[in-house]
Write a structure and sequence with these properties.
6-stranded mixed sheet, two-stranded antiparallel ribbon, single chain, alpha/beta, 8 helices, 2 domains, Rossmann fold
Length: 246
């Protein structure tokens, strides 16, 4: 039983990485973790040369990675949320999986779990990844989100910058209450003179938010890992049944 984890986070020891690895550990399977920022997987160029062969012709690390995807019984994909979307690393990886879709739908029924970490739009990112992978024939057995560390916490001028992420997601600018201030209570205090995209004013109470400190989040990762294990074991039992006609 093999489970492959693929992270679209370029940050070292990121929350995305931590959740993917927690899920992998909970499967009890042979696992491998790949960080897309450490290899070279470019975007699809729509050349359509994969139609008949189901093999992408671009000469980069996707050739190596796609073999691991096909060999795995399940994959766990995770991405941080950048500008309300998946990272460019994850987007490129999912685009390139298109080569496995043509004619034969080679990944039909492959088990997948998704992880998205962000400040306000992580649920949309998890949904997008799930829909994209489902379109490739894969079966989404688990999806989870978590709050991460805003880049403003570590960039330097975050407390006084006019263009902080919480101001970008403010109701004044988006027209929606995305709950950033509530979600980061204990980590961030917006000061009375803070005015979105006019005058930034905040105080950092903590400089880093780690999912490892959040018991419910880590418990959900473990639950998904165990679910993956059960689904793989059940599928192998069915395939090995003497009455199975597959």
């Amino acid at each position: 039983m093999k489970v492959l984890g693929v992270s679209g986070s370029p940050t070292e020891n990121s929350n995305t990485d931590a959740l993917i690895n927690a899920i992998l550990d909970a499967t009890g399977a042979e696992t491998e973790f790949v960080k897309l920022s450490e290899i070279n997987v470019g975007p699809c160029i729509a050349c359509m040369k994969c139609v008949q062969t189901n093999e992408c012709v671009l000469n980069d690390h996707f050739k190596w990675l796609s073999k691991k995807v096909m060999e795995a019984d399940a994959i766990v994909v995770g991405s941080p949320t950048y500008y309300g979307a998946a990272s460019a690393f994850m987007k490129a990886f999912i685009e390139r999986l298109y080569s496995k879709r043509h004619v034969k739908l080679l990944m039909r029924g492959k088990i997948v779990a998704t992880v998205a970490v962000g400040v306000a739009a992580e649920k949309m990112v998890a949904e997008w990844m799930g829909n994209a992978l489902r379109a490739g024939g894969m079966e989404i057995v688990g999806s989870m989100t978590a709050k991460g560390t805003p880049c403003c916490f570590v960039c330097g001028p975050g407390e006084t910058c006019n263009y902080t992420v919480w101001n970008a997601y403010s109701k004044e600018l988006t027209g929606m209450e995305l709950g950033v201030e509530e979600a980061y209570k204990g980590y961030l205090e917006l000061l009375p003179d803070n005015k979105p995209y006019a005058h930034g004013s905040a105080k950092f109470l903590k400089s880093y938010r780690s999912v490892k400190d959040e018991l419910l989040v880590m418990a959900e990762a473990q639950r998904i890992g165990k679910l993956i294990k059960e689904r793989i074991e059940n599928s192998k039992m069915i395939a090995g049944d003497s009455k199975c006609k597959c």
